[in-house]
Amino acid sequence: MIDKTVKNAQVAVADIPSNCMLMMGGFGLSGIPENCISALLERDINGLTIVSNNAGVDDFGIGLLLKKRMVKKMISSYVGENAEFERQLLNGELEVDLIPQGTLAERVRAGGAGIPAFFTPAGVGTEVAEGKETRVFEGKTYLMENWLKADFSIVKAWKGDTAGNLIYKGTARNFNPIMATAGKICIAEVEELVPAGELDPNEIHTPGIYVQRIFQGVNYEKRIEQRTISK
Amino acid sequence: MLTKDQIAQRIAKEVKNGQYINLGIGIPTLVANYIPEDLDVVLQSENGLLGIGPFPTEAEVDPDLINAGKQTITLAKGSALFNSAESFAMIRGGHVHLTILGAMEVSENGDIANWKIPGKMVKGMGGAMDLVASADNIIVAMQHCSKSGESKLLPACSLPITGIRCVKKIVSDLAVLEVLPEGGFLLKERAPGVSVEEIKSKTAGKLIIEGEIPEMIFD
Question: For the whole prediction, is pTM greater than 0.90?
């Protein structure tokens, strides 16, 4: 088996340059690559374009990269939880491309699957459709959307093996499996890293072919945004 | 006038046995509290879950289990987990039977606006555009008027729209209305104590009134 293991997050992100395009898995703060975000904060790079469903919160997740002014552009579907984001956006210091969530997911999936464009009903008749090609299929209008690909995709899984096979847990799966497919280099951080052969092949969510680097992360905080308890 | 919980309670009466349902954030989330226990339905969470269970106890809280509103949840019996592309594949593919979401404005031809107020901070549309463009059965939970008393049921939306000709039914704090395919809000029910005249005066779009309009019945 090809061994994809790297020592830690610092090594995994060491060659990510300024002005490149990154994908980062996660929905809200669930399933975000905490270790790689911390390691990126230690790097002296900027001008990043980040594809991520959300933009973290002020003091956690991608919010930390924003605060350090490392991000030039966010490509997201919902960014509402972040005051620093808002400040930079209103000051013209940050670009943002807002995309319907299903379109974002499918563009990433298409990027990883070699499909340059597809037609979706989402956004027809809205400002999302401005400047885009439309076509009618069976009487309904659809919008053409292009694939999304990245220089690096950074994902977080629950378990992984040295061959890069990944298993996710709960709703922390979200965008991680599709982003793993759409980066030229995919970096995976996992809570538990085992030797190849120890994970059940029937249960693999992301086959190792998509993953170039894998390491076992440390000190996961897994912050909860809306702790809601049943009464 | 209905409270938010009463709007949710009235919408829950639209739920049918065997449905897969997507509930939006806000009042729609409350609908789950009022679905009769003898109905077998499955709630879809767009971040990758079919089968949302109740909120967890303190001991059950798991940061790897959240809903689309980022609240902690549990898994219902028989639930399934999947990635975001698959989640929206089942939404766009027409496999979700009922979508319930909030709105800032609805037009008489069924256009909905619920994602952006120009000049204010733009937070993004999340999954709303995919949901409204795909679902055959969309019920909107909303306030009939703004805080300053202006109607939110309009001839045409004034805010940037989320989707065109998609809303089928509205439950507001004043009334239940159907949006007709040819255009217009057909008044079906009044909130307890609310007159047809009041609904008329607070509906800017074309309102259609046929015969006696019954009051809503709550169990």
Answer: yes
Q: Are B209 and B185 in contact (CB under 8 A)?
A: no
Nearest to A101 among B75, B127, B161 (CB): B127
Residues with pLDDT less than 70, chain B? none
Within 10 Å of residue A174's Cβ, how many Cβ atoms?
32
- Residue B6 in contact with partner chain A when CB distance is under 8 A: no
Closest chain A residue to B52, measured at CA = A171
The reply to whether A120 touches chain B by the CB within 8 Å rule is: yes
- Output the domain CATH number for residue A162: 3.40.1080.10
Interface ipTM: 0.97
Residue B219 belongs to a domain: no
Q: Which residue's entry shows tokens 């980062």?
A: A24
Is A132 a member of any domain?
no
Q: Is A134 on the interface with B (CB under 8 A)?
A: no
Whether residue A26 contacts residue A176, with contact meaning beta carbons closer than 8 Å, is answered with yes
List the end-to-end C-alpha distance of chain A, in Å, as a whole number: 50
How many folded domains does chain A comprise?
Answer: 1
